[in-house]
Every structure is written in C-alpha cells, then in structure tokens.
Amino acid sequence: MEKRQFGKTGYEFPILSFGAQRIVDEHNCTEDEAIQIVNRAIDEGITYFDTAPTYSKGQSEERLGKSFGDRRDQVWIATKTGERTRDGSWRKLEESLKRLQTDHVEEWRLHAVGTMDELDQIFAEDGALKALIEAKEQGVIKYLSISGHLNPQVQLEAINRFPFDSALVALSAADHFIYSFAHEFLPKANEKGVAVIGMKLLGLGRLSDWYEQALRYTFSLPVSTSIVGISSMEELEKNLAVARNFKPMSDVELLSFLKEMMPMCTPEILRWKAKDWNNKEEWSVR
C-alpha cells in the first residue's frame, strides 16, 4: 500500500487505516472475530487504529487492547475524549488506558467538536485542552488531535488557535458539496503541516454501491491516511484490495463521480451534518 507522511511527526502510514468502532457486538462482530480481524490488519501492514471510549460503551477499546497483546509496539493508537473539561477528560483517558491495556497512547483526540461554543469550552482555563497538554507533558500521550464532522470553520479556528498535530474530519464524496472539509479545511491544514485523517468514506454505508470509487475519492485527496470502519474479515479484505490497487482519480473520473454523488447530499445521507444529529453513540467512521 502507498504510504504518506503524517504531518510533521516524522511518521508515515498506509493510506488505509483501521476504524475500530465496529469490532463490537452491536455490529455483529464477536470478540474472537475482532481479534482475528485486528491481527490480520497488522499482518497486512495496517498500523493506525482509531477508537473512542463512547464506541459501544468502551467495548471497541477493550477489544483493541485484547487484540494487540505483545504486538502493542507495532501499532499506533488514537483514542478520544468527548469531555470538554480538564478533569472530565483526564477521567476518560485513565479509563481508556485500562481498557486498551497500555500505559500510553500515541494520539489523543478531542472528539467531534462541532461548534465555536464547544471550542471555547475546550480552550477555557479548565478546558479539555489543558488535559491534553498535561498528558503530553507526562508522556501519557504523544500527539494532540481534534476531530469534526459538521463545520470546517470550527476546525480551522482550532488549528489557528493551537498547533494540533492532526485532525480527523469527514471527507466522503458526499461531503464534497456542503460544509466541505476538502475545500475549506484541507488546504490550510496541509499548509500548517497538520496531519489530516479522512473519515466517513462510505457515509455510514450509504455509499456502498460506489464502494471502490468512494474509497478512491478520499484516498485521492492530500490526506495523510483514512480510516474505514471494519466489522468483518470480508470488509477488511475488500478495503485492502482497493488500497493495494489504488490509483488517484483522474479529473474526468472525479467529475463523473461527483455528478453521481450530488443527489446523495441530503440530511438522510449526511446525517452527521443534519441539525438533529445528536446521538453520539451512532457516530461511525465507515
């Protein structure tokens, strides 16, 4: 698989990374299956794993912890805090470390920051950013990150206020047309050396009829890597096949594909950009 630089960190990752939200009972994936899938991914060169404490009430983190075993030094773990305060975030991190069976994570991410008010809370004197900075100073985490689904202006403001190492943002083909991180956020992030991780490539599965094209669209953007949610070995192998054979979309291919995607730009498809998108348990990285 093609590898790319991860911002200014000095690390590089394959274009395909692992979204771990779906290796859970809720998505019909057993613990044994999860362990097999994760280890198969590592065998095939995938090293970047994204999770969060809210994914099935911690089961995603627990299964990653059980899966890695003595391969912990072969992987990069990115987990998150949805808390907006310093103390709340520290509690979340301590719980995450226990579930992940590790004493540190490579990347800790402010989860789904959607509004300027939330950003102000995070940057307050007792806000979550203070926990991120303290955790890095103590060696519990190495890199600081932020994620966003809704409004790229919020993430733009965030990287203008603080030198985040990375940002996880919605970059599906359908996202191209409204509140577009590809248009509004990606150029400035690249200019600043912020590693950008694409998510929502398959739009909660709504773009499955265009599976290969959907992945190729995001892979063709100037991102460091992209995470795709995986709940079965079949899905993993399908994603690996696309990534191994990846060729950037030509301008003609891109235009044709975007014409097909325009009708998909609806609140029913882009649910993370709809006004009533407030169930954090449903957030997905597919």
From TrEMBL:
<protein>
    <submittedName>
        <fullName>Aldo/keto reductase</fullName>
    </submittedName>
</protein>
<dbReference type="InterPro" id="IPR053135">
    <property type="entry name" value="AKR2_Oxidoreductase"/>
</dbReference>
<dbReference type="InterPro" id="IPR023210">
    <property type="entry name" value="NADP_OxRdtase_dom"/>
</dbReference>
<dbReference type="Pfam" id="PF00248">
    <property type="entry name" value="Aldo_ket_red"/>
</dbReference>
<dbReference type="InterPro" id="IPR036812">
    <property type="entry name" value="NAD(P)_OxRdtase_dom_sf"/>
</dbReference>
<feature type="domain" description="NADP-dependent oxidoreductase">
    <location>
        <begin position="16"/>
        <end position="216"/>
    </location>
</feature>
